[in-house]
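User: Reviewer 2 asked us to show a designed sequence for the structure in our supplementary figure. I'm pasting the structure tokens here. Could you produce the per-position amino acids so we can include them in the response letter?
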């Protein structure tokens, strides 16, 4: 195996025959190289690739890249933009072709995947057991620490530290439930006294534009999707609210506003501000002690998590928000 550096990434010479381009943590081959790898003609490889996208097994956007390469055409060398396909496509085609090399590839891929799954499962099983034991031990320690708070002679500083640890264990429990997919929707507040209309939302956004003058396009709507986000949190089915509690409406407002990316600029800031205003106007922003149910740093993390999340993870993101709202 031989390496060569190019401005596009690393090139690996596979078995002294096929140059494999490595970039962005994956391998890239063009159709000609795949035809050589699987010992099939270009037409067959192209047909398999078209079927991969036709059946929506993979997305073109994330699996195709164009690289400028020098190729020989007749007696001259020409610089062309050639489409390359990443490892996901290579594997998909490898499982479709009918050839000796295709069979060899499938045997190799299956063995590698099996080893990865078995090793990964064993490693994760050990990690989860250790994590579970640590959380159990920490919970027991926190229970003992809470008893210490009752001792009058203990210093205020020590009491403060113990209180911080007690609060932290709640977040640990949420993380543990997240890892084990045990998150449930906690009981919320049913009676909503504030309706966030489009007009009210625009006033909040316009006030933000006056305060944050770093960009003149903050809050400028790209389309009608923002109105759709607001309407979605109040949708009903069979005469009943789809999202019956204030917390569920707020969580979906934050998710829809971030994910729909309705504004030219300031999407996450606007979404977070509307989320906070909605909770505050409905009287549930703070707990009975007057503490914010979701602090500033957590809100920033939530907005970033939602923006980076896969749409298929929507329900999980909503549950995380609701559990954080109900954690104090």
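Assistant: Here is a per-position design you can include in the supplement:
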């Amino acid at each position: 195996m031989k390496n060569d550096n190019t401005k596009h990434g690393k090139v690996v010479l596979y078995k002294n025959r096929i140059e494999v381009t490595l970039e962005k943590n994956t391998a890239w081959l063009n159709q000609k190289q795949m035809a050589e790898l699987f010992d099939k003609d270009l037409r067959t490889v192209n047909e398999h690739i078209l079927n991969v996208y036709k059946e929506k097994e993979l997305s073109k956007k994330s699996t195709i890249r164009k690289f400028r390469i020098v190729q020989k055409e007749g007696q001259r060398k020409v610089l062309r933009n050639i489409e390359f396909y990443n490892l996901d496509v290579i594997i998909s085609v490898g499982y479709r072709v009918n050839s000796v090399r295709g069979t060899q590839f499938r045997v190799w891929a299956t063995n590698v995947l099996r080893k990865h799954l078995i090793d990964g499962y064993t490693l994760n099983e050990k990690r989860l057991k250790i994590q579970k034991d640590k959380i159990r031990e920490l919970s027991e320690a926190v229970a003992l620490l809470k008893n210490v708070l009752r001792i009058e002679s203990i210093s205020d500083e020590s009491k403060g530290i113990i209180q911080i640890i007690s609060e932290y264990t709640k977040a640990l429990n949420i993380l543990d439930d997240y890892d084990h997919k045990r998150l449930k929707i906690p009981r919320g507040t049913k009676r909503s006294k504030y309706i966030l209309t489009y007009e009210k939302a625009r006033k909040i956004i316009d006030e933000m534009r006056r305060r944050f003058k770093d960009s003149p396009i903050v809050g400028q709507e790209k389309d009608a999707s923002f109105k759709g986000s607001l309407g979605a949190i109040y949708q009903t089915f069979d005469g009943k609210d789809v999202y019956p509690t204030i917390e569920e409406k707020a969580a979906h407002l934050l998710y829809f506003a971030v994910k729909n990316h309705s504004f030219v600029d300031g999407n996450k800031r606007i979404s977070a501000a509307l989320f906070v205003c909605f909770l505050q106007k409905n009287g549930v922003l703070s707990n009975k002690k007057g503490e914010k149910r979701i602090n500033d740093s957590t809100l920033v993390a939530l907005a970033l998590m939602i923006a980076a999340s896969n749409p298929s993870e929507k329900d999980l993101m909503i549950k995380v928000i609701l559990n954080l709202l109900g954690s104090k």
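For the response letter, you might also mention the following. DSSP finds twelve helices and eight strands in the chain. The domain at 198-325 is CATH 1.20.120.1870 (Four Helix Bundle (Hemerythrin (Met), subunit A)).
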